[in-house]
Structures are given as structure tokens and as C-alpha cells.
Amino acid sequence: MPNTSAGRKHAAGSGNVGGGGGGGDQSDGGSGQKSQQRSKVARVPDDIDKKGQIKRLKDVEISIPIVYGTMSFWLGKKATEYNSHRWTVYIRGATNEDLSSVVKRAVFQLHPSFDNPTRIVESAPFEVSESGWGEFEIAITLFFHSDVCDRQLELYHQLKLYPEEESGAQSTKKPVVVETYDEIVFSDPSEAFVARIQNHPIAIVPRLPTGLTLPPGPIENSSEKKRGDTKDHPFSQWFMNFSEADELLKLAAARQQVQAHIVKLRRQLSMIDGPPQQVKAPSGQ
Amino acid sequence: MDAKDILGLPKNSISSAPQEKRPRPPKESQRKPDGVSREVYALTGGMAPPLMPAIDVSLLKRKQQQAEEKVTWQWLPFTSSARADNLQLYHWVRVVNGVPPSGDYSFAKFNKSVDILKYTDEEYEKFLTDPTWTKEETDQLFDLCERFDLRFIVIADRFPHMRSVEELKTRYYAVSRALLISRARSPGDVSGHPLVKEPYIAAIEVERKRALGSLLSQTKQLEHRDAEIIAEAKRIAESWLNNKVNALAESGTPGVLPAPGAAATAPIGAADGASTPSSLRMLGVYLRTNVLDQMVQAANSSAGLRTIKRVDQTLQDLGVNIKPKVPTKSVCAEHLELRKEILTLLGLQKQLQYKESEVSGNRDSHAEIPSTPKRSHRADQDKAFVPESAGFGGERPGKRDNRRKVAGRFAEAPPSPPQSKRPRKLKISDG
Predict the structure, then answer these.
(1) For position B151, which CATH number holds?
(2) Cβ–Cβ gap B385/A257 under 8 Å
(3) ipTM for the assembly
(4) 3 state DSSP class of B376
(5) Where is the composition biased (Basic and acidic residues) (chain B) (predicted)?
């Protein structure tokens, strides 16, 4: 119970700035530090001047499966009252592909008791690591490249530091991981975006109408792009698995059960209607 | 408090701050009553104790002192002020220390009589004349009213002239009302008096009696036909709702089951682009779960809050997440289909329920229809589908509801239903 109250200060060393707060930005390295200075910079993508020429593909949907969440490690013996966990909030491709060809920037809004609670991450991997003792909701705002979408997207995630009762006591070995699967959907995407993303592993692109010619996609500099993915991420062993097949199987089984029951109910209804020497009742179906 | 000690909680733990904040009883301002143990008193929270001591403690003590007294029972004569004839009767009385109880007979106070206003001749001439009533008749009426304590049925029976109960009441209340008003110093003095505030209106009374009479004289056939009509109306409303749900289902996403793992080769966007609410598509970017939420809301829009809850409960009973864990496009489509099917299922179930209640109603009047096959129905319906017992557990109460509504029509009826109704009622609630 003490870990879920929202109103209290969560940051390590919020009282003594020099201490825990200083150690806050180790793993998001330079990008986090750099961006903190310009946290008030315009939120709209800079190059929208080409907007007039953008050709859009009507009724086409591009989806980008993503996973976002937090992973928290208990500090064990090193834990102090206000600095008990080291945690990371992140957004990754569902198959750990690099998201940076779509996402331009991610802004993580931490609890106001942290130093510089608005953390801007300009390149993949999109993550922020911090340490503290309290759980709170983190808002993640995603900004996309100008050919993708002008609008931003908000995600919300509840930071979880303490394991559920049934999963046993806290351990420094096993982190508490909470991840959410979702898909970012772009409707009526621009041709340029579709061309660029068409064969990219992060995107689900529908079969496009035949006869459509897209501008040639840019040649990817694969060696440079590699660094943004999370395949070799130190946390990757803890990432959760999201199996669509399992979910579909479960749903199919449930539907079968319900459908069978519907059939049975219809039969019962017709049996009641069947031998009538009573009122003729119009069946609703 | 003691509970905290037992749980080993610190007296002032921060985590239980909200509970702690409850205003504590002002210190000793309300003294713990004698004879109540500290623990029991603590349970009351120091508020005004919900349990009143039935007997005053001080009284108990006094009684103990009197225990020394000699109590005898004696056969003694008594008179009652309730009687005008000074009749002397005998009864057994408790006599303490040889002193018989004095005063009036203790039951005399129950001899209540109605205060009937008396008018003078002068008053009658001034305020109370009525072309349909003579003074003689009015005098007779008031005599009878006093004699029979306003029991108008009896009064009407004894009244020498042919007057209906309503006529008698009208005259009595009109005279009393006029007297009250004429004797009052100002109209405001009596404006709150029930006789003045709520005048007797014979027409309403006649109508009320007619309605009651027709209800009481209703035959079983008539009553049955009413119940039938109500069931029918319900069913029509139900099927109308179902059609709406089905229409919604058809306009929604086509229920094709893509091969598992089909995400990489999603169907052509144009085909099911229509499934996405246009409000979201206008945004250009959104989350798959946003789409699902909106679609679920749309599908639920025709259902009531209780039905929506039951859908969720059914999903849980089926072992399906209320919100999909992996909301891909096909998972969302399937999830939505499942929800719609559950809605259809619940609708059918309700329909069946109405039909059954109707049939069981019929069974009543047509005794030749055996009840056994119907019972077996019920049983296998209860067992076949696991979620039913939990998710649709409301079925039986629902049935009673139904019944109650029927009864609700006769709200004006006296609290105890006419005898003829009773056997039927029992049958329905257990059938």
C-alpha cells in the first residue's frame, strides 16, 4: 500500500539535490542531458512546409506494433529509504526493431518531484532510467517524423516497482516488468511514408492496391541504423512475450462455446414455440 | 484501538492515516455508560450508542430494594371510569404490603371515543343548512356518528333513511368543516386541520371503490390474460432490441478468423477501413486500443448497464481478457465479435426466460400440460454452459422481478392479495 500513493515525493534525493538526483541519468546518457535544456522547444515537427504536396493513400492503415512499459530492479542491500529501486521506462518495437524510422522523439513526463521531470529522448532506444522509491503514472508523448504524422500520440504507463504478492518477495536478481502491447495506427498515410516503411520490419503494411506506384524508398544505411534496436538490449531477457496466436486461439475457443450456446438457446426457444395450442408468439429472431 | 493491537499495527501508522482521521469522540464528553464493558463501548466508536439499554439501571436497583416487600394477589372489586353504569366487577390484583392499588381501572384509558362536534340550533341555521338534508336527519346522523365512532358502514346500516355511505360522509364532513371554520377566530387557525385541508370528495371515493371492486371481482382468466399481454409486450421490446444489436453486428467488422500470426499479412486496408470510427481516422494517428474501446462502446450502446456488466462477467468466465493483452487488428476484430455474440446470447436467454414465464403461466390454467419436460429444460440449461451459473445467475431473481412488475399494476390493491391469487404466485416463483 505505501508504494502506490501518488501525492508523495518520489525522486531520489529530492530534498538533497546533490545526492541521489545527480545519479539519475546514467543510462540514457547524453541524449537525456542534452534535451533537458530545450524542454520547452516547439512540439510541432519542424518541416511541415511540404504539406501541400503530400499525397495520401486513402483508406490505408499502417500499424506499428509497439511495447511500452517499465522494468524495475530492487537495489537490495544498497536500497535506502528514498532510493530503493532503479527503474527504466521505455518504448520499443514489439519485435525489438528500431522505432526511429517512425518515431522522431519521445517525451517522458515523470513525477514532478524528479529533477527535470520532462525527459526528452531524441533517438532510439527511447528510454529513461531513474531511481526512486515511489510508483506513479508516466506519460509518454511520441512525436513522429514529418512525413509520418503531424500529430503526437500520448501513452500512459503506471510505474511498478514492487512485485505482486503472489510472485514472491523482492529480489535484486529478478526485475518487476510491466509491459503493454499496442499498435500505433496511421490512417491515410502519405505515399512517401508508405514507400519508406513498406518493407521495414517494424510496420504492418496492408497489401496496396495494384497499379499504385510509390516513389522509390530511400536506401537505408543499414550499418548506421542498427544501433537503435533493442535486440541486444541488456534487458532483453526480461522483455515479455506477446503472442497474438495464443490470444486468437483463446478467443476462437470462447466464440465457439458462445455460438454453441446460442444454437442451443434458439432450439429451446423454437421448442417452446413449437407445440403451441396457446398464444401464437412471434419469435424475435 | 484494540483491533490495531491485535494486528500488530503501530498506533499511529501513516498508511492508515485516512481511517485515523475519523473524528475521535471528544474526550470523555460522552461518558461510557455504566454496565457497558470498555470493549463493547469501543465498538460503538463513541458515537451515540446505537443500542439503548432496555431498562434503566437505576430502576433495577430500586426494585431489588423492594424485593423485601410482601406481595400478595387478591380477588377484589373494581369499577371502571370507562363505564357509565358503575358496574362492579371483580378481578385478581397484585397487592403490595397489604395496600391494594388505588385509582382508576388501568384499562379504562383505552376506552377512546371520537370527538364529534356539537352544533347549536343557532349555528345550524347560520352555517349548516343544506337543501338535501333536514335538521332532523342531520341530528340523527351526528347521534349515530357518536354512537358508532364514525364507523360509517354501521352508521349507514342503522340510518333510518336511504342514504349511501358517501352521502353520509359528505354531510358529516361538510358540517364538521363548516363548524370548524365558523368557530375559528381567523381562517388561518384551522387551515392546517385535516378536515379543512383535505375536504372529502365523494366522486373520488366512489371511483376508488369501483376500481377496487373490479380488481377483486377479476376472474382468474382475466388476470391471466393481463399477465400474458405484459409478457408479450416485454418480448416485443426484447426482440426489437435484439434486431438492433444484430443490425449493429452486421454493420461491424466481418467476422473472418485470420490464421494466427496473420499480423504480418493483414487484409487489405480498404476492406475494413470502414470499421474504424471516423472520428479516430481524422486524427491520422491513434492506438489500436482506442479503436477497440470505441467499437466496444458502440456495440454496448444499445444495451443496459446491467447487460454490459454481464457481458464482461461472461468474458471473464470464458477465460478471455476484458481488454485483449495483444490487441492486434485481428485480435480486436475477434474480441468484438465475441462481445456481440455474447450480447446476442444474453438477449436470447432473456427471451427464453419470458417465454418460460409465459408458458408456466399457461400451465396454470391448462392443467393438462405436463410440467416435467419443462423442468428438465431448465436443468440442462443450467449445466451446459459453465458461465451461466455465474454470469447469468440473475435469471431467477429476474423472473421474480417480472412477476413483481405484474403485481405492481395493482398497487392500489389492499396489501394482502385476494385469495385466488395466492396458489398461482407460489407456483411461479418455484417453477
Answers:
(1) 1.10.10.60
(2) yes
(3) 0.73
(4) helix
(5) 19-36, 355-367
